[in-house]
Amino acid sequence: MAKTRSFFARFRHIWAITTGFGLVMSAASYAATTDTSDLLQKGEYLAKAADCVACHTAPNGKAFAGGLAITSPMGDILSTNITPDNETGIGHYSEDDFARALQRGIRKDGGHLYPAMPYTAYAGLNKADIHALYLYFMKSVTPVLQKNQPTKLDFPFNIRALMMGWNFLFLNDKPAKTDFEHLSGLERGRYLADTLEHCSTCHSPRNFLMAEKKSGYLGGSPLGGWYAPNITSSLNSGIGHWSEEELVTYFKTGKVTGKARAGGGMAEAVSNSLSHLSDQDLHDLARYIKQVPAINDRHDSRPRDQYSAPVVTTDLRSGETIRVDRPIAMDGAAVYDNNCASCHGGDGNGSPDQHIPSLYNNSVIGSAQANNLVMTILNGVQRKIDGQEVFMPSFGDKSLVQRLSDKDIASLANYVTGRFGRGDAHLKAADIATIRQGGAKPFLVRYISVLMLTGGLGFLLVLSLIYRFFKKTDRKSAQS
């Protein structure tokens, strides 16, 4: 009997040790699972903050599968598949490969990316944040088998190796010392603005080599026909008169009544990215942007959203007899009455709830650059946030309601800016044609042939001088 008790006593010790070991392992496994889950959530949040889906998802395509044509001054750049598919996506990328593409613009095969992929901003990503992003894309994003379509640019822009020189001149690949979740206040706002949301990629002007001008930080820039406006703290040229709450509201909804409505790329940024950020992050971002040093344009005498005011009009008959079959010239007022007044109203008031915005006190109408007004007419507006969709039909080549000519759009834009904005924009049909094509070509694109010819002649001249120098030296040596 004593031997039996001794056996069971020893068994209890073994059972206790085994159970304890099992509990420790279970706790460790649970902790590891929890850590991974937290990292995946963090990676998803960072991917939304970086707005990855906007560029890497084609219209009606699958998320992150690429195929979107991104307009650039050199031509269309096609985004790539960044789902974890091993054959056509980035499933075969190691974390180091992933980081190199994000921060240095170099693919796994060594090919250089164009800075349409904002690696110049992502270069500031902290290593811990890259790790969270990598886990998210590899474990949470659905793999999509979709072959990448090659980007075809004209010579010499099709030589990707040239990006090595461009990166040497303009890429600052110094990552942040602190990861996103351990930043707060203005530092967190700066990380959001400069790295994740890459605001300066659109809102900063470019030099003749198409790199951002640091001296013009957030001072506004043409962008594929649109114009990303000045968002510095300037009272008249920027958003210095906006409150922090108004900026946060704009980030969350894409609209601030009496000030601005998001369209084009900004509508995408609001829908896909900004509206998904926490209120605290939006406040940090707004607070940071509001303290960016002002860049002033001497031509701006008041904020662009403070032009014009509601007017009361009376329809009086002139008494003139007009034949019903007489063609009427479609001036700006007529184009507006036929295409715009049914929604925005004859006096530009918009709808009572401002779902259809008024045209007075409107930053697009009051801007010195009419690009965004023209692009809104050409492309319309479409954004969807929290199940609510904002839609304005386009009047461009693909319009389903009315395709307006360049002359009609110029007349309409001049009428709208003259009546509701800072004054007639004096646009011509040729200006609209240029905007349709993505805006004026940068200096480098316009004169690349001349620059190449000049460079070639300069190179031949240098070779000639070197040849003459050595030939002259040989003669002297022979004579001596």
TrEMBL record:
Coiled coil: none annotated. Binds 3 heme c groups covalently per subunit. Heme c 3 binds at residues 340, 343-344. Gene3D superfamilies: Cytochrome c-like domain (1.10.760.10). PROSITE patterns: CYTC. Heme c 1 binds at residues 52, 55-56. GO terms for molecular function: electron transfer activity; gluconate 2-dehydrogenase (acceptor) activity; heme binding; iron ion binding. InterPro entries: Cyt_c-like_dom, Cyt_c-like_dom_sf, Cytochrome_c-type_DH, Membr-bd_ADH_cyt_c. Pfam families: Cytochrom_C. Its EC number is 1.1.99.3. Its cofactor is heme c. This is Gluconate 2-dehydrogenase (Acceptor). It comes from Zymomonas mobilis subsp. mobilis (strain ATCC 31821 / ZM4 / CP4).
